[in-house]
Amino acid sequence: MIWTDINDIAIDLEEKHPDIDVVNIRFTDLHKWICELDGFDDDPKRSNEKILEAIQMAWLDERD
């Protein structure tokens, strides 16, 4: 996975962290958890606030 695989990342995050309060998550934590996902293979420095926000919103959608 890479940073633009937003929906795949959101699905994996929901599976690994089902009890997290996604609305109030810190982006530093979100970034760390994404980089730790199995199959994630992108440069950690390539993320930005826009990508992290998109992943956060996709994660919320996945939860619904």
Task: Tell me the number of strands.
Answer: 0
Query: Which topology does CATH recognise?
Result: Arc Repressor Mutant, subunit A
Determine the mean pLDDT: 97
**Named CATH architecture:** Orthogonal Bundle
Tell me about the largest β-sheet.
none
Shape: globular
The number of helical segments is 3
> Low-confidence parts lasting 5 or more residues at pLDDT below 50?
none
* CATH superfamily (homologous) name: IscX-like
Instruction: State the share of residues found in helices, binned by percent.
Output: 55-70%
Query: Using only CA atoms, what is the Rg?
Result: 10 Å
Number of domains: 1
User: Which structural class do you get from the secondary structure elements?
Assistant: mainly alpha
Oligomer: single chain
Element-by-element helix/strand order: HHH
**CATH class group:** Mainly Alpha
Terminal Cα span: 23 Å
Hey, roughly how much beta strand do the residues contain? under 5%
